[in-house]
Amino acid sequence: MSQPTTAPDPAAGADIAAPPEGAEPSARQRRDFRRFMASHVCNELGSSITYVALPLTAVLTLHASAWEAGVLAAAENAAFLLLGLPAGAWVDRMRRRDVMIAADLARAVLLTVVPVAWLLDADSMPLLYTVALLLGCARLFGDVADQSYLPTLVGQSRLIQGNSRLESVRSGAEVAGPGVAGFFVQLLGPAGTLVGQAVTSLTSVALLGRIEAREERPAPRPSGHGGLWQEIKEGLQHVLHHRVLRVIALGTASVNLCLSGVFALETLFLTRTVGLPPAAVGWILTTASLGSVLAALVTRRLSMRVGAARLTWLSLLVTMPFGLLLPLAGPGWRVGLFVMGVLVQSAGVTTYNICQVAYRQTVCPPHLLGRMTATMRFLVWGVLPLSGLLAGALGELAGVRTALWILTAGLAATPLVLLCSPLRRMRDFDAAPAQ
């Protein structure tokens, strides 16, 4: 496994370092982490609102077809394919907190565009595609910086605990977000509801600005270092030459290919096929998010009992087949089948993410964190634009319900990728081979 030694550690010059391994964090470090978590609450609440309001704007206001809904989902995720690799190298050259603040400010500005266009009767699907694409760019840079910043706040030994706490607040925001979005869509219309995330993004900026730990700007790369493309190559080599990271990337990409297609069609399915109003759609997605909350609360304990490596594949093997309940949904009591399916699936995905993200942060050298995170995002989220287009095409050609059958069947098969790998024979990640 290639590990370059010339690049500096961007956390090395921080005024307040992460707590030593095994030591209790100071009161100041606890405050910093609480502010970091609070900024997560704001961002995830806003993202959950947008997750409901943006597709509803397309479906209810602009009467989007299944294909257009798929293109919208593809546009929102295209940044991970187009900019995923250079984003990590750029983030490793900058202060990570500054990147998160800039991403939040960009989101706040972009989310005011749609309601203003709606008021001026100038909204259109091309406008939504453009806003979705730029929101995806902001999300990409914010997420890469976010995951790279966490180890400097909590230290290596507390990454499972730190990621579990962040997942719990993320999941809590997901619980509240769709219900809030559904209520305000009924009250203000889909476009007007997008103002909500603009407010939460600005609140996140204020919270991040109050973190007391300061990062020094990373030192310039040596003149013979090779530039941006050499840094991208180092990130790719770290992931692709690592036996476990390579398997995690392939398995996660398989899940995302199918799951993102389901996400692209679920609003259309619930409103047109099942016949639910926007408020009901919001509350259904809220109830389903409870699975993520419960998983975030118990994953640390489960990983200690079962083993983090074993829990990584077991979480998907047990939960992904429940997705087959989604296309069985219909009016009346059959709506409960949809809720049950996404509730169990969200629990499985949350547990899987906590385990594999903590492992990635543990095995990666600090100076490569941004590039490793961006490389993983490129590999596992680069399939999302394809997934949106695939879902849209399936919905147009075969119908939305049949498209869901195909996508959820694929999702049920994704754990096979991890089962046919060294992960199946491991209990904990500390025994994972690098090559």
UniProtKB/TrEMBL annotation:
Q: Where in the cell is it found?
A: Cell membrane
Keyword vocabulary terms for this entry: Cell membrane, Membrane, Transmembrane, Transmembrane helix, Transport
The membrane-spanning stretches of this chain are: 36-54, 66-87, 244-265, 280-299, 311-329, 335-355, 376-394, 400-420
Return the annotated region ranges for Disordered: 1-24
Q: Cell membrane among the record's keywords?
A: yes
How is this protein situated with respect to the membrane? Multi-pass membrane protein
Listed GO CC annotations: plasma membrane
Per its UniProt record, what Pfam families does this chain match?
MFS_3 (PF05977)
Q: Which PANTHER family match?
A: INTEGRAL MEMBRANE EFFLUX PROTEIN-RELATED (PTHR23513), MAJOR FACILITATOR SUPERFAMILY ASSOCIATED DOMAIN-CONTAINING PROTEIN (PTHR23513:SF6)
Protein name as annotated = Arabinose efflux permease family protein
Q: Which organism is it from?
A: Streptomyces collinus (strain DSM 40733 / Tue 365)
